[in-house]
Amino acid sequence: MPYIPPLAKLFGKSPFKPLHMHVLKVKETVDLLKPAVRAFCNEDFKGVEKLAVEISSLEHECDTIKNDIREHLPKSLFMPVDRSDILIFLKEQDTVADMAEDAAILMTVRKTKGMPKDIKDGLIRLTDKVVDAVDALEVAASEITDLLESSFSKKEVNKMLEIIHKIDDEEWISDKIGLKLIKDIYIHEDELGHGVSHLLHISDVLGDVADYAENAGDRLRAMIAR
């Protein structure tokens, strides 16, 4: 693991370096959804429970970093970025990890067996695309300092907007996959029984992960617009 300097030192250079540190931990949290969903689909419920514990632990680390950022963020920033925008961006970014934890916990509360292959495939495709959206968010967060140091040069602005558009695209695709998954769940309503509502809830919360990644991207877009 690379050495991460104290937040106070990071803030001395840029308020966005700690934000990138936070999103890296968010991404680490979300990445575990892939093996968790695959374990769920393979009816490896002990594996799901183990991964859910890991995800919850990482989400707690996200909260710790978030709270540290809030406590150390200077009241006045000599930068073309509003402090409230940074805090809103942080909140949206942190909620991504919250939703990942919610999805993981949901998969532990009911041992859903005998899922049809199309539903398993849909859950896996949705999860993969949700992770892609968070990957794009991490790339965007890593570019903010370069954007500021360039004094919002046209080249860097366009580069950032392109990355944010990538987040939008991934979220849009995840919505389409999620809609098909919902239809497939209802197609198998008779054989799934009470499992229908559980699977619908899981798919909804997985989609929320991408939604909040898009919200964070929208906040970045607002910063640029100002």
User: How many strands?
Assistant: 0
Report the CATH C-level class. Answer: Mainly Alpha
Number of domains: 1
Q: How many distinct helices?
A: 9
How large is the radius of gyration? Answer: 19 Å
Q: What low-confidence regions span 5 or more consecutive residues with pLDDT below 50?
A: 1-5
Order of helices and strands: HHHHHHHHH
CATH architecture: Up-down Bundle
CATH homologous superfamily title: Phosphate transport system protein phou homolog 2, domain 2
Main sheet specs: none
Residue-averaged pLDDT: 89
Distance between the termini: 36 Å
Per DSSP, what share of the residues sits in E-state strands of 2 or more residues?
A: under 5%
Helix fraction? Answer: over 70%
**Structural class label:** mainly alpha
CATH topology: Methane Monooxygenase Hydroxylase, Chain G, domain 1
Shape descriptor: elongated
